[in-house]
Design a protein that fits this description.
Blueprint lengths: L1 H18 L3 E2 L11 E9 L2 E6 L5 E5 L4 E4 L5 E3 L14 E6 L3 H4 L1 E10 L2 E12 L6 E10 L10 E6 L5 E6 L17 E6 L18 E3 L7 H6 L5 E3 L10 E4 L3 E7 L5 E6 L5 E5 L36 E3 L5 E6 L13 E5 L4 E7 L5 E8 L4 E6 L5 E5 L4 E8 L1
Parallel strand pairs: 1-20
Antiparallel strand pairs: 2-27, 3-4, 4-5, 5-6, 7-8, 8-9, 9-10, 11-12, 12-13, 13-16, 14-15, 17-18, 18-19, 19-20, 21-22, 22-23, 23-24, 25-26, 26-27
Length: about 400
Amino acid sequence: MKMKFATAALLITLASASAWAQINAGDQKPEATLPFNMTKVATFTLPWRIAFLPDGRMLVTEKVGPLWLVTQQGQKTMVMNTPPVYWQNQNGMLGVFLSPTYSTDQRIYLTYAEPGDYGGGLALARTRLDLTATPPTLRDFEVLWRQMPRGRGGQEGGQIAFSPDGQYLFMTVGDRQRFTPAQDPDQPVGKILRLTLDGKPAPGNPNFGKTGAATVPLIDPARDTEAAKTAKVVSTYTFPGPNNTPAETWTMGHRTPYGLAFSPTGELWELEHGPQGGDELNLVEKGKNYGWPLVSYGENYNGVKIPHPDTRPDLAKPVIYWVPVIAPGNLMFYRGTKTFPQWNGSGFISGMDTMLLSRVIFDGKGGAKMAERWDLGKIIRDVEEGPDGSLWMLEDGDLGGLIHVTPK
């Protein structure tokens, strides 16, 4: 009898483990019907991110540059004193995020492509939102971090997640279509950075305290003809200062990291685009290398093959990957208990090329698996939770809608 119980327990354990194993979710079919209503309340020019204010109003960025204050009824007011941006292809005004100290100092963070030599570079800025001014205005603007060198490549990243204790911020930095620098710890591309709220390297980072310059290649045009067409090819660049040293790096080997969020259990998850195939959902863990461009489940657009992740067991694999891709826009965790209580603790992924909204279930132990996948018929750049637990989405496009999602 004891042997039977032991065998049954082992089978249950194995079944549970296999249910949470790494999966390819690319072929999952969408649900037959939508369990919610979608109402468009406003339109924008290439909108990118939503940040909710405590009073229920929203800040919405447009990639072309403006920042808007928006009511839930769709009334829009442009916020003054935003910085100039390098707007081209995937570059421009990107994310807007409320500081953990917003309730006392009204500070917000912006990520954007800052104009400069050869194009633009990712910048992180902090500023104070003055809602008493008419119109609302940004004050005390300061750039906390700059990506050097700048360039014409896309895939900036620019997503922020604040640590649960509110002491640090994590920021995604894409590979800028330069490939190999994602594997160079001295280059601020293809990385997730961990910074203080003042934009400095955070104590406890894998290489905290290291300084020094490094001369490295800017781009490897032989790897990607598209990158060679759109990027200023400069053979080498020497990083002169401590702002671009390994001290900032938390993880490396990322391609186009557009999603970054802490789960309700405190895990940090990242979502990124693969090339042709191989979008990834990664559990972010200190010091790990996530493989790009050494390995991928996809292949390069120019036909150059990429080794499969199974060939490099020393590199971290995604928990979920998509072949074919979903072209993810963002990742958020739902914490509501009233509007959609059945989804409390779930993650939501917006899809662009596939026009999908996907729900992901997390086990709180580093595991994740797909739940529903809904075809919305719209290119969704961002999805966020409103104060009442309803969902809000941004539709990518020249007339991209702000869409309110409520239960049927």
